[in-house]
């Protein structure tokens, strides 16, 4: 039976990040994808023009529609802009006894535009982080959550440990923003696991964080243990960046379908 995954995230109309990247990732993993849209973002590879949050009422009704009918095997949470939406997600996921929750604490788009308001940070820490089976901050997000400056791999480990203490079961601090190789570090409360890949020289990195977190959720939905799920997802995102699409004028999107290009004529 096909596994099912849900993304709770913002809509990127240009298709490279947010809900659209997540659904493409689920499909590429042959996992049935569902979505709860938290915010409609008018954005492309270069800029965010505007966004409008979906009402708490309609977010709750989307969750109701899903959970009364098709129970997801794993959930990925992306852009959640306001404290009210964070609280509603927490209450509902507890009510529906949601399993395997991966949270990408999205704060900014690649061009630096904020996708979470500054005053949400406390609620993110108190309300969202304890929900996470796996939290996947990038370096600037881990710095905001911990108040630490992160420059080295040791700093990444310390940040992962301190975010774990806030209640996330597993913490993956992503090294996409490092200068050197792209090394991500997982802390499961006991030990650190380093996931290495070479740095790919490209500006086409729109949607990398969304792709990684939804690939982790897809692997968890299939029943993989967390370390294997992260390892498979890291391999997946590396391929998706290596083959990223030179679309648009800014940061082009990750490619979810390069494996199929050999067998299907585009
Ligand atoms: N240039 C790159 N080469 C290889 N891997 C990268 C590159 N940029 C990001 N990654 C990887 O993509 C994933 C997403 O990381 P990151 O870009 O830090 O997240 P975000 O999109 O949240 O800023 C991580 O696994 C990271 O190591
Ligand atoms: C709706 C939405 N959600 C998330 C991101 C961040 O994307 P990423 O960090 O993966 O490039 C984005 N640009 N838009």
UniProtKB/TrEMBL annotation:
CDD domains per UniProt: HMPP_kinase
Any one annotated GO CC term: cytosol
GO BP term, example: thiamine biosynthetic process
Organism whose genome encodes this protein: Pilibacter termitis
Full protein name: Hydroxymethylpyrimidine/phosphomethylpyrimidine kinase
InterPro entries attached to this UniProt entry: HMP/HMP-P_kinase_dom (IPR004399), PM/HMP-P_kinase-1 (IPR013749), Ribokinase-like (IPR029056)
Record SUPFAM superfamilies: Ribokinase-like
Pathway: Cofactor biosynthesis; thiamine diphosphate biosynthesis; 4-amino-2-methyl-5-diphosphomethylpyrimidine from 5-amino-1-(5-phospho-D-ribosyl)imidazole: step 2/3; Cofactor biosynthesis; thiamine diphosphate biosynthesis; 4-amino-2-methyl-5-diphosphomethylpyrimidine from 5-amino-1-(5-phospho-D-ribosyl)imidazole: step 3/3
GO MF: ATP binding; hydroxymethylpyrimidine kinase activity; phosphomethylpyrimidine kinase activity
Taxonomic lineage: Bacteria, Bacillati, Bacillota, Bacilli, Lactobacillales
Pfam families recorded: Phos_pyr_kin
Family (UniProt): Belongs to the ThiD family.
Keyword Plastid: no
E.C. code: 2.7.1.49, 2.7.4.7
NCBIfam families per record: HMP-P_kinase
Catalytic reaction annotation: 4-amino-5-hydroxymethyl-2-methylpyrimidine + ATP = 4-amino-2-methyl-5-(phosphooxymethyl)pyrimidine + ADP + H(+); 4-amino-2-methyl-5-(phosphooxymethyl)pyrimidine + ATP = 4-amino-2-methyl-5-(diphosphooxymethyl)pyrimidine + ADP
Record keywords, A-Z: ATP-binding, Kinase, Nucleotide-binding, Thiamine biosynthesis, Transferase
Residue ranges annotated for the Pyridoxamine kinase/Phosphomethylpyrimidine kinase domain, each copy included: 12-255
Superkingdom of source: Bacteria
């Amino acid at each position: 039976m096909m596994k099912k995954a849900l993304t709770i995230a913002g809509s990127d109309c240009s298709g490279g990040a947010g809900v659209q990247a997540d659904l493409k990732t689920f499909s590429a993993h042959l996992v049935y994808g569902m979505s709860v849209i938290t915010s409609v973002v008018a954005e492309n590879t270069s800029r965010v023009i505007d966004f409008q949050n979906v009402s708490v009422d309609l977010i709750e009704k989307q969750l109701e529609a899903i959970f009364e009918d098709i129970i997801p095997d794993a959930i990925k949470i992306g852009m959640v802009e306001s404290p009210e939406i964070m609280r509603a997600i927490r209450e509902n996921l507890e009510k529906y006894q949601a399993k395997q929750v991966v949270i990408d604490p999205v704060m900014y788009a690649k061009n630096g535009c904020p996708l979470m308001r500054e005053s949400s940070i406390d609620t993110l820490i108190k309300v969202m982080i304890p929900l996470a089976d796996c939290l996947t901050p990038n370096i600037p997000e881990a710095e905001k959550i911990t108040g630490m400056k992160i420059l080295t791999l040791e700093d990444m480990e310390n940040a992962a440990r301190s975010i774990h203490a806030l209640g996330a079961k597993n913490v993956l601090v992503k090294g996409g923003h490092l200068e050197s190789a792209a090394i991500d570090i997982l802390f499961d409360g006991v030990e650190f696991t380093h996931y290495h890949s070479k740095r790919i020289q490209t500006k086409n990195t729109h949607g990398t964080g969304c792709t990684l977190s939804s690939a982790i959720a897809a692997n968890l939905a299939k029943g993989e243990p967390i370390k294997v799920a992260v390892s498979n997802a890291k391999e997946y995102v590396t391929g998706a960046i290596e083959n990223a699409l030179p679309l648009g004028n800014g940061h082009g999107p990750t490619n979810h379908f390069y494996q199929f290009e050999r067998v299907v004529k585009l």
